[in-house]
Design a protein that fits this description.
The complex is a heterodimer. Chain A contains 16 helices and 14 strands. In chain A, helix 2 packs across helix 4 and helix 14 packs across helix 15. The chains are: A alpha/beta, B alpha/beta. The structure holds pyridoxal-5'-phosphate.
Chain lengths: 402, 272
């Protein structure tokens, strides 16, 4: 018997041993309310039509699949194809999810939206949809990330959002998530919490996946139409895992399609300075779900490291934990240096500045393609564009901007 | 009978409202924790709640967050907290001790291993903030080892879930006085009174009320309709910055004794 991956999660939000609802009592009611609302909406043809309309006319979907011919020639192996989520409005896949959650919030009559952000892409995508709805948006962002993603902070402000720097803990994405949960606990009556990845308590891992699954649905049809076959392999970077599961989901039951997630190996997994929760973590409980986490022997969540703020997270979506254990997907580490090299390679060979997060996927795609014959197709999710990262790259490489 | 139910039975017999102080283990100084526990008992505590430091205390406000950070910076972990309870038990066999914390440290240590160690050390109950009644199977080894699992009930808990919480609760039910994080603004004692009175009519365990109780006057009001009052952030804030264990002990005593006196001046809620 082969597993039907499309039946997950179960009614309790579990993907095998992972997922679930591990939150303080006060949040149980708003989560139940959200679960009920989402269950109703996800099967409602009007809601689906509204969502698809926005994706087409506001986001600019479908995003193309682009054959990176020159890059493929230079690598000298399989053909590298790029799913161009960087071409979406606001520059990343994150908008797929916020368009969907904004519609849910609207249907639930919520008057205030909060979000957490790491790289700032989800914060920008949240601020964007809130501007469209005309409702206030508060974005929590670790103080360290505010520093290293200044351009996105400014974009959020231009869009009318309030950005609250978070100074607790390691002052990065995980702490922003804690702070957003604290806000939500305090303002449950009128506030909608827009989580930016497939983590958090049920129903978020499912809901955020469903909204991003348009990526894989499109890609699967595009592959059949443009190439007459499915790709040999899929590659996506994994922070919380939303762009990755978005691409993977439509292909999970296609057993011949290999699936690879690229995690941030930072300075190298052996150095301990990384954010590779699946490759180097262990099962635990963080931010409302059971999943792989990076923690010490006392169970304290440890500070992660990655050159890309969007991958700097010590947990990962529970569905990925399940896919890892089941062997359906493989998760591999890509170091900062490898990601930067891939960033430059793609810029020079194809004229595309990829986000540092996405550059991890490109690096993994290149490694994989190199080992494969020329007639194979490797589909890489180019989850976002790199404009937000030029300061980081310049600073790291000791260059000034002009 | 357990140490917790014995204690509540004794309180009821004496028509005395229960007082439950909370401190984060290892804060303000690791060497102060056991001395603080004894001092709190001397100042009138009926049951002690000891917070287990965690890196990501998502239900806690800034005061307890910072206490967690200070304790973690000094290397305090779950094993150490259990060892302190064992040390406390050497001189106090009566006062119940409840550990309050988050799941991950317990899971990483191993729920069964932790349960055995904690029970042997003299821990009586465990409150896992991020383990709602739906995930009770996760904590099954705690019960199996003889520890009581304390549950929270909140203003947002609906009737159906409350039924389940009441059915599973052991020791006492901890009613969270408002929808928010620990140590947040002021609670409205009128709405709490209504909810707690209704809750006590259904609960099979005593009901303690906490979150946002900052002073003797509020504590006394709550004691008029609850079985016990929990005081956390205000105490943790008072202890912060103590120069040494002796000062922490002095501050704890000075903080708690007037609250005890205020509670003893009101007719106990369980007289009702
Ligand atoms: C462009 C881009 N890709 C990937 C990620 C990582 O998130 P996820 O793993 O949820 O796709 C981010 C996060 O900010 C991002 O901005």
């Amino acid at each position: 018997m082969t597993t039907d991956f499309h039946t997950l999660p179960d009614a309790h939000g579990r993907f095998g041993a992972y997922g679930g609802v591990y939150v303080a009592e006060t949040l149980m009611a708003p989560l139940a309310e959200l679960t009920a609302a989402y269950e109703r909406l996800r099967n409602d043809p009007d809601f689906i039509a509204e969502f698809e309309y926005d994706l087409k006319h506001y986001v600019g979907r479908p995003s193309p699949i682009y054959h990176a011919e020159r890059l493929s020639r230079r690598v000298g192996g399989a053909q590298i194809l790029l799913k161009r989520e960087d071409l979406n409005h606001t520059g990343a896949h994150k908008i797929n999810n916020t368009i969907g959650q904004a519609l849910v919030a609207k249907h639930m009559g919520k008057r205030r939206i909060i979000a957490e952000t790491g790289a700032g892409q989800h914060g920008v995508a949240s601020a964007t949809v809130c501007a469209r709805l005309g409702i206030p948006c508060v974005v929590y962002m670790g103080a360290v990330d505010v520093e290293r993603q200044a351009i996105n902070v400014y974009r959020m402000k231009l869009l009318g959002a309030q950005v609250n720097p978070v100074h607790s803990g390691s002052k990065t994405l995980k702490d922003a998530l804690n702070e957003a949960l604290r806000d939500w606990v305090t303002n449950v009556h009128d506030t909608f919490y827009m989580i930016g990845t497939v983590a958090g308590p049920h129903p978020y891992p499912q809901m955020v996946r469903d909204f991003n699954a348009v990526v894989g649905r499109e890609a699967r049809a595009q592959m059949l139409e443009q190439y007459g076959r499915l790709p040999h392999a899929l590659v996506a970077c994994v922070g919380g895992g939303s762009n990755a599961i978005g691409l993977f989901h439509a292909f999970l039951n296609d057993a011949d399609v290999a699936i690879y997630g690229a995690e941030a190996a930072g300075d190298g997994i052996a150095t301990g300075r990384h954010a590779a929760s699946l490759a180097a973590g262990r099962p635990g409980v963080l931010h409302g779900n059971r999943t792989y986490v990076l923690c010490d022997d006392d169970g304290q969540i440890i500070e992660t490291h990655s050159v890309s703020a969007g991958l700097d997270y010590p947990g990962v979506g529970p569905e990925h934990a399940y896919l890892k254990d089941s062997g359906r997907a493989q998760y591999l580490g890509v170091t900062d240096d490898e990601a930067l090299a891939a960033f430059h390679e793609l810029a020079r060979s194809e004229g595309i500045l990829a986000a540092l997060e996405s550059s991890h996927a490109v690096a993994q795609g290149i490694k994989l393609a190199r080992e494969l014959p020329k007639d194979r197709l490797v589909l890489v999710n180019l989850s976002g564009r790199g404009d937000k990262d030029v300061h980081t790259i310049a600073a790291r490489e000791g260059l000034s901007l002009i | 009978m357990s140490r917790i139910s014995d204690r509540f039975a004794a309180l009821k017999a004496a028509r005395r409202p229960g007082l439950i102080p909370f401190v984060t283990a290892g804060d303000p100084l690791p060497e102060a924790t056991v001395a603080l526990m004894h001092a709190l008992v001397d100042a009138g505590a009926d049951l002690l709640e000891l917070g287990v430091p965690f890196s990501d205390p998502m239900a806690d406000g800034p005061v307890i967050q910072h206490a967690n950070e200070r304790a973690l910076a000094k290397g305090v972990g779950l094993g150490q907290v259990v060892a302190w309870v064992r040390e406390f038990r050497a001189r106090d066999a009566q006062t119940p001790v409840v550990l309050m914390g988050y799941l991950n440290p317990v899971e990483i240590r191993g729920v069964a291993r932790f349960a055995a160690e904690a029970n042997e050390a003299g821990v009586d109950g465990v409150l896992l903030v991020d383990c709602p009644v739906e995930e009770i199977a996760t904590a099954a080894p705690l019960r199996a080892a003889g520890l009581e699992q304390i549950f929270l009930a909140a203003p947002t808990t609906d009737a159906a879930r409350l039924e389940r919480v009441v059915a599973e609760a052991q020791g006492f039910l901890y009613y969270v006085s408002f929808a928010g994080i620990t140590g947040a603004a002021h609670l409205s004692t009128d709405s709490v009174r209504e909810r707690v009175t209704a809750l006590r009519a259904r609960a099979r365990t005593p009901v303690a009320v906490g979150f946002g109780v900052k002073d003797a006057a509020t504590a006394a009001t709550i004691a008029g309709f609850a079985d016990a009052v929990v005081i956390g952030s205000a105490l943790v804030d008072t202890l912060a910055g103590s120069a040494d264990a002796a000062e922490a002990v002095r501050r704890a005593h000075a903080f708690l004794a007037p609250i005890r006196a205020a509670l003893d001046a009101v007719p106990a809620g369980h007289a009702a």
